[in-house]
Amino acid sequence: MKQMSLAHSGFELVTKRTRTLGEKEGEYRVKPITAVGTASAKDPAKARLAELVEKLNDLFEGENLTDADKVSLFEHTTRKLTESSDLKRQAKANTQEQFAASPEFEKVLVDSLIHMMDNYSNMGQRILGDEKALAKFAQLLVKPVYEELRARA
User: Fold this and answer.
1) What DSSP state is assigned to residue 42?
2) Which terminus has fewer CB within 10 Å in the chain: N or C?
3) CB 74: neighbour CB atoms within 10 A?
4) CB atoms within 10 A of CB 69
5) What is the pTM of this model?
6) What is the DSSP letter of 37?
7) Is-contact 145 153, C-beta < 8 A?
8) Judging by beta carbons within 10 Å of its beta carbon (0-12, 13-18, 19+), is residue 148 exposed, middle or buried?
């Protein structure tokens, strides 16, 4: 191993300023924290989700529902509506305002909600009425639930 030696070392004073607390020139004080948790969400996805939850809370005020219940209904309904070939055609051919005013949108929405209620009821009855189906469903859930809870810890 070769030996190394320090040949040069030093500091250079680039600018010398003398300031005392309370001087009028410039802003030299550190601003204090004024409140805890006042920062807004930086992630656009989190900001959209927070706004959605707030609107869903207003819509379902007084109901005994969790945020997950409300967001799940919203997301599932969105997916069902985007499956509609009629709505796909209308979205392609119209502005958002025209699309929203279409009577077809409300018809597909109501039909989707009815089918979702029926489907959830049928799936729930199937799982609860068959021990093997319940065990299989539980197996499917273990890993994602465990990982989500660990990530939150």
Assistant:
1) -
2) N
3) 15
4) 13
5) 0.64
6) T
7) no
8) exposed
